[in-house]
């Protein structure tokens, strides 16, 4: 099978690498020259535009940062839908709202093109190791068809239901990432100001009911003063806003989400 990948960022490039390792014929397109050259050096082929890529492959995969990027790449004059042929399967790994998923799904369907929303979790380390969690929305028969491609990049491949349901699951996950990160920041600053060592406090929490995955993931980096960017605060702030918007649309109050979004926004503004 021929697979195309658009968006060779911190997640897209290692995912592309794993597709090449799985012996798919891989085509790539991205706005940054460096990652394209890296992908070509390991065996991928370069397409001229998103439309050109879509015309060459059986599966088109995208991993893009913002909803505006997705709209341009999908609906532009040289976008995916301009080049996709009937039977092509498009899979978006970006984190967006379900409304945008529905818009792409229905536009693709008019062209007899298939669409899956398949946001991912696991960070760059999971992308490199091929152990991502991938939560998928769309038609079950198309999910089954795409499974070999998804399995080249992920370990936990979960079918969530109809179009948009993958994004619902991802927004809830990232909503909790934001809330838990704000909570652990408050907790460990409080502990430090009260005279506790962070290592000892962490040991207590890991063996008590206050434990969370984000403590294990984030706290060691804070302790080591390792602030290399792994996930942009701009993207986390965007995801919190999308989760809050989704809640508003279905009349679910999200007070903690709104508070965490405000605090993450303040941190964002502070640099």
Give the key terms.
alpha/beta; Rossmann fold; N-(1-d-carboxylethyl)-l-norvaline Dehydrogenase, domain 2; three-stranded mixed β-sheet; 9 strands; 56% helix
Q: How would you characterize this protein structure?
A:
- Helix 2 links the parallel strand 2 and strand 3 (45-46).
- This protein has 2 domains: 2-162, Rossmann fold; 168-269, N-(1-d-carboxylethyl)-l-norvaline Dehydrogenase, domain 2, CATH 1.10.1040.
- It is of the alpha/beta class.
- It contains 13 helices and 9 strands.
- Helix 9 (165-193) crosses helix 13 and helix 10 (198-206) packs antiparallel against helix 11 (213-223).
- The model has no long low-confidence stretch (mean pLDDT 96).
- The chain has helices spanning 12-21, 33-41, 50-56, 67-75, 80-83, 98-110, 123-129, 140-151, 165-193, 198-206, 213-223, 233-249, 255-269, and strands at 2-6, 25-29, 45-46, 59-62, 89-92, 114-117, 120-121, 132-137, 154-161.
């Amino acid at each position: 099978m021929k697979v195309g990948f658009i968006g060779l960022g911190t997640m897209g490039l290692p995912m592309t690498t794993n597709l090449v390792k799985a012996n798919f014929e891989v085509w790539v397109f991205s706005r940054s020259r460096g990652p394209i050259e890296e992908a070509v050096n390991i065996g991928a082929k370069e397409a001229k535009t998103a439309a050109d890529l879509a015309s060459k492959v059986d599966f088109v995969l995208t991993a893009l940062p913002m909803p505006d990027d997705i709209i341009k790449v999908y609906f532009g004059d040289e976008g995916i839908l301009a080049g996709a042929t009937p039977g092509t399967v498009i899979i978006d790994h970006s984190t967006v709202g379900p409304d945008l998923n529905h818009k792409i799904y229905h536009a693709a369907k008019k062209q007899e093109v298939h669409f899956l929303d398949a946001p991912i979790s696991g960070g760059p380390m999971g992308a490199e190791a091929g152990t991502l969690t991938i939560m998928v929305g769309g038609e079950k028969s198309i999910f089954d068809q795409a499974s070999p491609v998804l399995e080249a990049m992920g370990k936990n491949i979960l079918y969530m239901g109809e179009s948009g349901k993958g994004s619902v699951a991802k927004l809830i996950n990232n909503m909790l990432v934001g809330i838990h990160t704000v909570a652990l920041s408050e907790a460990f600053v409080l502990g430090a100001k009260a005279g506790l060592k962070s290592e000892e406090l962490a040991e207590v929490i890991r063996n008590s009911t206050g434990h969370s995955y984000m403590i294990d993931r984030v706290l060691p980096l804070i302790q080591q003063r390792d602030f290399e960017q792994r996930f942009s605060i701009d993207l986390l702030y965007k995801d919190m806003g999308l989760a809050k918007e989704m809640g508003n649309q279905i009349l679910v109050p999200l007070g903690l989400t709104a508070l965490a979004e405000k605090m993450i926004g303040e941190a964002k503004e502070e640099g």
